[in-house]
Amino acid sequence: MEIKKCRLPEFISSFALFEVGSTTLFQIGAEAKQDAWLVLLLAALAGLLLLLLHLTIHHLDPQRDLFELCQLYFGKVAGTLAGSIFAAYFAYEASRNLRDLGELASYVLLNRTPIVVIMLIAVMVIANSVRYGPRVVFLSCLVMIPFIIISYLVLVSMIAGVGLIHFENMLPVLENGLQPVMKNVPNVISFPFGQTVLFLVFFPMIHQEGSLRRSILITYGITALFLLLINQMNVLVLGPKLAETVTFPLLQVVQQIELVEVFERMDILFVLVLFIGLGTKLVLFYIGAVVGGSRITGTSYKKWVIPFGIAVLGMSFASPNFTHHLWVGIDLVLKWYPLIQVGLPVMLIILMLISKNKRGGEEERQIA
What we know:
The chain is mostly helical. Helix content is 71%, strand content 0%.
């Protein structure tokens, strides 16, 4: 795939929308109840270290994307295997977001429409966006980010304005000690903070290389704080027990907004905002998988759009119902994600540093 450069604001907008993505759809760290904010805080700090790792990998070799780095530093066979694992991971994550989108649309808006129809239409629309490459998607995110920011500000202001927030729901802090908090932190690192490994595919596209690190870190900090506040708002409004058991807690919160009999059904606005977040995450994971197929095989980028689209749609039906889908995501696959999100990048940077030191030693010997 030919790399088309993009400006930093477009990239940062995409990064922010990706981080928010589907995260606000669920209650993160729900088992910690009123201490969910502490789970998110610790996971965000760990995710920051992972992001610094990804930025360091890019800094060591800024011209190559994730799949090229794997093939260069792992070697052809091991690099192809590692690249294939990343491509499969991206495709699977895209399929999970597609299922989330289909379930949400069916639950709120189109309850008489078969979910297979909803998801088929969604994947066709997304595939058409993927066909044009990441730069077009980044430009779209730049256009949509103001609407997302304003929408969330309106929703939060209304929730606070109608008196739904009860700060006593945060107490007592650490009622059951640190054990429930620490138990949930690894899963929250994997989702959503560890997913930033995807951006190793996109980092070489940036024009303003010098500003990338600072801008990404600031954006990460703001989005992590936003996710913490939104996640804890579910507890403040619904209480820790209900926030843990409701399928879509923030949707439940938004549905309680009734302001002077004029501003009602604000859940429609929330669902629209969620669709944009889910769609952004879905399309970026989809692009990551397609780039992987192209890099690994040395074939055209566009040739992989339809095969991966079929794979994403097929994998989205792996679970017979939404409850099973959530169980697989939380209790099964999240336990393996650290091997991909942490293990492979750590191995990669070790090999890159060894290679760099080896080249430095050879250059010194030649000068001597």
